[in-house]
Specification:
mainly alpha; 4-stranded antiparallel β-sheet
Length: 335
């Protein structure tokens, strides 16, 4: 988990009800209190100022049980690929994306020129992550991360994210009361985890703060910087939807990769080789004779040739439902 979490998206789409707050047993609270004392000492040893530690952790007296329950019941697989894409590419979403592209055109052009990522891709990712800034989450980030760091399921990961969140507060980029986001600690209009914020967030407006909560300049530049740092190639597409002839048996070894989405893609071949194998664009139009590599991904209803830029989208969230929604939304916004 690098930056964003599916829960905010799917929860909004399916109108999930929040898990009810549950009481924590007294002995569990005592164990939590002892553990939290160790976290406070560790934070101070890492150079986090005393007043930041006291403000951020002083009011936490127990874990947020609903965050633990959400973490155990993540909804990434609730929808099929086609159903997810259909919901995310509603006409109203495309229309809003085009409006945002026009509203911020001058700024987006500067960001795109700096980082090489097309403006429609930036707007589409922003739209998928937070509904163009409208759905950023209201959970207090530090208590959420503290809870998930205490829970043993992914304790090491979330403990480091907690220290990174305290580091952000220590730097003065955001005030504690404004540091809010998802149940998993993803923050702002980009749903960056704190570690991604520290590595990829950009102060594009030059005010001395990397503000992914309110500043359009910082939001757009941080998206573009993230994709750029993960290999986005200027001037190249993410991929194309294609038709695989049913009469052709196209079977190739799968890629290795950090997640199932990567492993569901074929090894890369030149586009010209896919053309030779009978892969076509919709309507039977031929592919180009380009020699850059492309991987084939197919599910029960659709097929795509995916280029290196698609890997940058998977780096943001390694799920085809997510990455293809961003990519296809970007194409519709651009057109």
């Amino acid at each position: 988990m690098r930056s964003h979490v599916f829960f905010l998206i799917v929860a909004a789409l399916l109108s999930f009800q929040a898990f009810p707050q549950k009481a924590v047993a007294q002995d569990e609270r005592s164990s939590f209190s002892e553990w939290l004392a160790g976290v406070r000492a560790d934070a101070l040893s890492r150079g986090i100022r005393q007043e930041v530690v006291e403000e951020a952790l002083g009011g936490i007296d127990g874990p947020l049980v609903e965050s633990i329950e959400h973490d155990r019941e993540q909804p990434e697989t609730l929808l099929s690929l086609e159903a997810y894409i259909t919901i995310r590419l509603r006409a109203s979403t495309v229309r809003t994306g085009r409006q945002m592209l026009q509203r911020h055109r001058a700024l987006l052009e500067r960001v795109s020129k700096t980082y090489g990522v097309p403006a429609p891709v930036i707007v589409a990712l922003w739209g998928i992550e937070s509904n163009f800034g409208r759905l950023t989450g209201t959970e207090p980030t530090v208590p959420v991360l503290t809870t998930l760091a205490w829970d043993p399921r992914r304790a090491d990961f979330f403990r480091q994210e907690l220290f990174d969140a305290l580091d952000i507060l220590n730097r003065g980029d955001i005030e504690l009361k404004q540091m809010r986001g998802s149940w998993a600690g993803a923050m702002g209009q980009l749903q960056f985890m704190p570690s991604s914020y520290l590595e990829y967030a950009v102060d594009f407006d030059g005010d001395g703060r990397r503000d992914i909560w309110e500043s359009p300049a910082d939001i757009f530049a941080s998206i573009a910087n993230y994709l750029n740092k993960h290999g986005w190639v200027r001037g190249r597409r993410w991929g194309r939807e294609v038709i695989v002839q049913r009469s052709r048996d196209i079977s190739f070894p799968r890629r290795d990769g950090p997640c199932q989405a990567t492993r569901d893609m074929s090894v890369a071949l030149p586009v010209s080789e896919w053309q030779r194998l009978g892969v076509r664009l919709p309507g039977g139009r031929p592919l180009s004779q380009a020699n850059f590599p492309a991987s084939l991904f197919s599910d029960s209803s659709r097929s795509f040739l995916l280029y290196d830029n698609y890997d940058a989208l998977l780096a943001y969230n390694c799920a085809h439902a997510y990455a293809l929604s961003v990519a296809l939304l970007a194409d519709r916004i651009a057109n």
